[in-house]
Design a protein that fits this description.
Elements: H1 3-12, H2 23-33, E1 49-53, H3 57-62, E2 75-79, H4 85-90, H5 102-108, H6 114-118, H7 121-128, H8 139-152, H9 160-171, H10 180-183
């Protein structure tokens, strides 16, 4: 790999942006409060766990919403060993992408083996249509995702009570713009 390719690879890697100094504390407390993989229900005594960002940090940076790195409602505990639900459910088999339907899929694939997940027609379709990396999104895709984020996670300038009411009201009525469920009848 030449120097240019190495730079391109590094620049496109999701974790090249500096993390908040508060991230280690948030991560520690989140795993303490959510000590099991949300899919397989195994704990750190059986598997290695990861705090997964439902909307990855690189997308939040690209959309000028870095505070979502620390937003508990944007986090979920997933295993990285064993069935590796972090990769297959959280990222649809590509760490440069993510699963817009992660909450649905956590329930849908609960306690299913990696082999069953990888052979599932619905999962393969989602993998095929997963969002592209944040830096490759069109301006229109970024705007759609920004609108979704502003509904699901209202900017901090909004009063906390209003934010919670908006989340309750809108989370059930506003599909993620990249959701395969929105475009295909999968359920």
């Amino acid at each position: 790999m030449n120097t240019h390719e190495q730079h391109e690879r590094k620049a496109s890697h999701p974790s090249t942006h500096p993390r908040s100094g508060h991230w280690p504390t948030v991560q520690h407390h989140f795993v303490k409060d959510n000590p099991l993989c949300a899919v397989c229900k195994r704990g750190h005594d059986e598997v290695k766990l990861n705090v997964h960002h439902q909307i990855p940090f690189s997308y939040c940076i690209e959309l000028s919403r870095p505070e979502l790195e620390l937003e508990p409602e944007n986090l979920v505990t997933l295993c990285v060993s064993g069935e590796n639900h972090h990769l297959y459910i959280g990222h649809l088999d590509d760490f440069h992408s993510y699963n817009p339907d992660v909450q649905h899929d956590i329930k849908h694939y609960a306690n299913k083996s990696k082999l069953k997940i990888l052979n599932d027609r619905q999962w393969r379709l989602k993998k095929q249509h997963r969002p592209q990396p944040a830096h490759k999104m069109s301006d229109q895709e970024k705007e759609q995702l920004r609108e979704y984020l502003n509904v699901r996670f209202p900017p901090s300038g909004v009063h906390q009570y209003t934010r919670n009411k908006k989340r309750q009201r809108n989370s059930q009525h506003y599909d993620h713009p990249h959701s395969v469920k929105k475009h295909k009848n999968l359920d």
